[in-house]
Cobalamin biosynthesis protein CobD
Amino acid sequence: MIFEWFSASFFSLFGALILDRLIGEPKSWHPLVWFGKWADSSRLQLQRSLDDRTFDQRRAGILAWCLAVLPWLLVLLVTFSLLPVALSWLLSTVVLYFCIGWQSLREHALAIELPLLKHDLDTARTAVSHIVSRDTQALTAEDVSKAGIESVLENGSDAVYAPIFWFFILGAPGVLLYRLANTLDAMWGYKTSELKYFGWFAARFDDVLNFIPARLVVYTYALCGMAWGNGSRARRCARQQSLYWKSPNAGPVMAAGAGALGVKLGGDAVYFGKKESRPILGEGRDPAVNDLTQAITLIDRGVFVWVILIYVLI
């Protein structure tokens, strides 16, 4: 029975990856767009005044998170209970497809790289602003490349590997839970005055869900970085540099990715009008434009490694 479940999960994974590569991410009718509107409504209904106690603001954030996520999980579980096996497999494939952002990550990277190659800095700044939270109006070409690479490496974990991990641990409900929780972290997890306490649970829950996948991604980047002779460097950077990064999961992932690529990331950046001094991640030279393509290549190699390992293990 367990073998049959893993076999069906592998075929769902294979189908979802093919759909993602061929179709990409739907722009206007993606379910996450609808979920974002639902989440905004949950926040408007439950967020407390900033003058309220920290405990009350956090409790409101927990309730809003539950209101945003749990109904959709319940709908999915009920739907699975009513479907025959063949349709359950098909639904699992579709759910995983909507939760993976492999092709979308590639498209975002190219949208940054191509303008930079044409020396169109304004367009590149606009493109990178779609995938990073820092201020981008004054970024140099090197800064744009660095921001894009950081986002690709971090989102390789969040949008590709972690969904695959939770799909094989808890099936379609697991990957849906992960994707919705990760989306709420992206919406509510910032330490601004409005979200510092309200978004506390969303940020911490996402950290928990990403803890194991992020460590697996470190080894994935290190293994794939061996093609450039940087496997040991990637592991060393993740081990030594991530201790000083503000995110417990993004730090080791980006450090390992930077080490695998042989570039230096991190450093000062401006978020919401305030300059932040960030540690250096990785070793080697400053990033160049074509390192965006190299970062995507690193993600692609890792996906192939995961698919092969999953196939061997089942």
User: Anything to note?
Assistant: Strands lie at 264-266, 269-271, 274-276, 280-282.
